[in-house]
Amino acid sequence: MRLLFIVMCSVLAFSSCEKKDCSIPCKESGRCKAGISYCDYSKNQDDCLKSEVCKKEGKCSVGIKRCELKSDSDCQMSMLCIEQGKCTYHEAGLCIVGSDRDCLMSNECKVRGKCDKTRPSKKSFFDDRPHPRYNYCKAGRGEDCVRSQNCRDKGLCTHDFHGGICVKSCADYYTEYTYCQNQGRCTPAIDYEKGTYECVAETPLTECRTRSACKEYGRCTLVGGECKATNDSDCRQSTLCKKYGQCIYNKSRDECRSSGDSDCRQSTECKTHGECTESLGICVAGSLEECRESTRCREEGKCTLFMSTCQ
User: Fold this and answer.
1) Range of the domain at 259
2) Is residue 146 one of the residues assigned to a domain?
3) For a Cys staple, 32 with which of 47, 145, 190, 305, CB 3.0–4.6 Å?
4) Does residue 81 sit within a domain?
5) Is 218 a member of any domain?
6) Is residue 208 part of a domain?
């Protein structure tokens, strides 16, 4: 059909038979060979190397019908490598994060502190496959965050271990037991030259007594940059004492613990759960009678003693 159209053009001199302008298809996908009303793939290496699909997707090699992704070197010429660390060719026809080195050379590391390849905690089906869950870079160390451009420009200097990212402050640290709220360590201490950081408490009044660490766990005193329990008084005013009977400071364990049955009997858990007997510094259900006298026995029928709990 195309041959017939070309013959007609040559004989009748149609105005529409002029060769097509291929500047845009050439720039976008390496289709630079101008034909009559179409742009064709020329199988020219330079055309592929100069195209957008090479820069964006790593499709820099000559293929049968188009520019294709074929090797690590193709990936390494692409923005996928520069921006995201996806510098390794995978047989599925994708650029993936193949190693920590891929991340180290990318803007993920230089700008955002994400210098480690994400990998599963255990050997899995996806270890050698381009599964999206494991195909990106993450922040793995505090020093990577401190040395990143975002630390200096935006203050994202604190390493969030759980999220694998760099965050703005110790108060943003993403974990159930946050440095700031539960330990009172709300101020980042950063050494840019050494590439070190840590979250510290500044003063007992502002960083310990006013935090949930004091109210809930009795950690009301600043010790070595961290809020800790240091005396019976702090333990007795805490939720640990009122609810769980852990009312005495235990120096060997450096925390509030139960000192005897008397601590347990005055606790909320004794009344509700029947945990009225001290064992190894905590309160447990010690007898069938304790279970039968509990609120849970009356309301939920959990009146049987099994392995130090009422069930």
Assistant:
1) 236-311
2) no
3) 47
4) no
5) no
6) no
Tell me the sheet residues that pair with 248.
257
- In whole angstroms, give the CA distance from residue 73 to residue 82: 12
What radius of gyration, in Å, describes the C-alpha atoms of the chain?
33
- Three-state secondary structure readout of the chain: CHHHHHHHHHHHCCHHHCECCCHHHHHHHCCCEECECCEECCCCHHHHHHCHHHHHHCCCEECCCCEECCCHHHHHCCHHHHHHCCCEEECCCEEECCCHHHHHCCHHHHCCCCCEECCCCCCCCCCCCCCHHHCCEECCCHHHHHCCHHHHHHCCCEEECCCCEEECCHHHCCCCCCHHHHHCCCEEEEECCCCEEEEECCCHHHHHHCCHHHHHHCCCEEECCEEECCCHHHHHCCHHHHHHCCCEEECCCCEEECCCHHHHHCCHHHHHHCCCEEECCEEECCCHHHHHCCHHHHHHCCCCEECCEEC
Q: Which two tokens stand for residue 61?
A: 């090699």
Residue 302 in tokens: 């959990």
| pLDDT values of the chain reduced to their tens digit, one per residue, 311 residues | 455 545 555 554 445 556 678 888 888 888 888 776 778 887 888 888 888 989 999 999 988 888 989 999 999 999 999 999 999 998 888 899 988 999 998 999 999 999 998 875 444 444 455 455 567 898 988 888 888 998 888 778 878 776 788 877 666 544 434 556 666 676 666 655 555 556 666 654 456 777 778 888 898 888 876 788 999 999 999 999 999 999 999 988 888 999 999 999 999 999 999 999 999 889 999 999 999 999 999 999 999 998 888 98
Question: Which amino acid is present at 69?
Answer: L
